[in-house]
Design brief:
The protein has 15 helices and four strands. It is mainly alpha-helical. The radius of gyration is 21 Å and the shape is globular.
């Protein structure tokens, strides 16, 4: 990752520019703001003071169902798809550059995957039990697949691919027998996705489950559709049309997708860990509504005053997500002597400045909010100096 200045356009956020000049487009600030809101929420839910004291909306659903926290990751993948539509539109017009562009897509995706592995390995670097799937790993894989699909296909084909993946995943999960287990099912440890994870990556899965992973292999396919929904939305926003018309149709399709997801939930339950097809439609629909609202308020109506705190998160989203995962691990390595014995620095700060003054749930939330403010100050300084760390 290298700091660059000046502040790049949205196209540069994702890939280096192609050699052939293409007409520049104004940066959509609303996309950075929506991305910033999403990554800020990621940090909020990933950094409680105590994992045993979390308010219900800040928890993932135990299995079936969807909490506000379950919206965060699909919203991020959705905005990855929107960014792909902006970043690669120039290269898409020049078939002779597709090979070089695909190489850059793969390079960036593998970089994200490697950063995710580094987070999983740090600080022990135990390769025998390292968790191979993960959030950044899924972002990297989805970016590669969705980027190549956008580059090599047209809108109609992208829609057909999305439908095929959603229907195919539903059919496989609901009707294909599970080897060694029997009838298909959607139980946590015996569904087909869990069997595939445990068969191909034994000992390298999420430590909380050990035999399946919420960012597993098979469920990455419908996650690609989440990004493709963003790709389709990005192409719609890029159309030369009246903003009001674009927003109206984006809202209409947002409502349609959300309702389709809720209807499909009756047969194929909304489930973040399985990334079910109903979950894809439900979260993509809500993401369309969110992007449409941000686009109308920020880029059409020109309301910018409230956006800076989210904007600073949005332009350095991967950077802050990565560093916010590294710093707590470093804090766990720094020990402090107390009257009760040696504790890590995070525990010392939390028990010294939060738990004595607040009830357990509020103390846990206050710690997470402190992290948000801490990173906001750093990102604000970076933004003012036009520093963007590109992956």
């Amino acid at each position: 990752m290298n700091p660059t200045t000046p502040l790049p356009s949205l196209e540069k956020d994702t890939l280096p520019p192609v050699t052939t000049a293409v007409p520049s487009r104004p940066r959509l600030k609303s996309l950075d703001v929506f991305r910033g809101i999403t990554v800020l929420a990621m940090i909020l839910v990933n950094n409680p003071g105590s994992w045993g004291k979390i308010y219900a909306p800040l928890k993932h659903a135990a299995w079936h169902g969807c909490t506000p926290t379950d919206l965060v990751f699909p919203f991020f993948l959705f905005i990855v798809g929107v960014s792909i539509a902006y970043a690669l539109s120039g290269a898409k017009q020049f078939p002779e550059q597709h090979t070089a562009t695909i190489v850059r897509i793969i390079r960036r995706g593998l970089t994200l995957f490697a950063l995710g592995l580094f987070l999983a390995l740090f600080p022990k670097f135990d390769f025998e039990t390292v968790r191979i799937p993960g959030v950044l790993q899924r972002i990297g894989v989805v970016f590669i697949i969705a980027g190549i699909i956008f580059l090599k296909t047209e809108r109609r084909t992208q829609i057909l691919i999305a439908v095929f993946l959603l229907v195919g995943y539903w059919a496989v999960m609901m009707f294909a027998p599970v080897p060694g287990i029997g009838q298909s099912n959607l139980l946590p440890t015996t569904n087909l996705a869990a069997w595939l994870d445990n068969t191909l990556l034994p000992g390298h899965l999420w430590k909380s489950t050990k035999v399946w992973d919420p960012e597993g292999i098979l469920s990455t396919l419908p996650a690609v559709v989440t990004a493709l929904c963003g790709v389709l939305t990005g192409q719609w926003l890029k159309k030369k049309d009246e903003p009001g018309n674009k927003i109206a149709w984006l809202m209409v399709w947002g409502v349609i997708c959300t309702c389709l997801g809720l209807i499909w939930d009756l047969h194929f339950p909304i489930n973040k860990s399985l990334w079910t097809s109903s979950y894809v439609l439900y979260t993509a629909g809500l993401a369309m509504l969110g992007v449409g609202l941000c686009y109308w308020l920020i880029d059409v109506k020109g309301y910018h005053r409230f956006t800076t705190p989210f904007l600073v998160y949005g332009v350095n989203a991967i950077t802050v997500f990565f560093l916010s995962g590294i710093i707590p691990r470093i804090m766990s390595m720094i020990k402090v002597d107390t009257a009760a014995g040696e504790v890590d620095s995070k525990t010392y700060l939390y028990e010294s400045f939060y738990t004595p003054f607040l009830n357990p749930y509020n103390a846990s939330l206050a710690w997470a909010l402190t992290w948000i403010l801490f990173w906001m100050i750093i990102l604000w300084v970076m933004y003012r100096k036009n520093i963007i760390i590109k992956v």
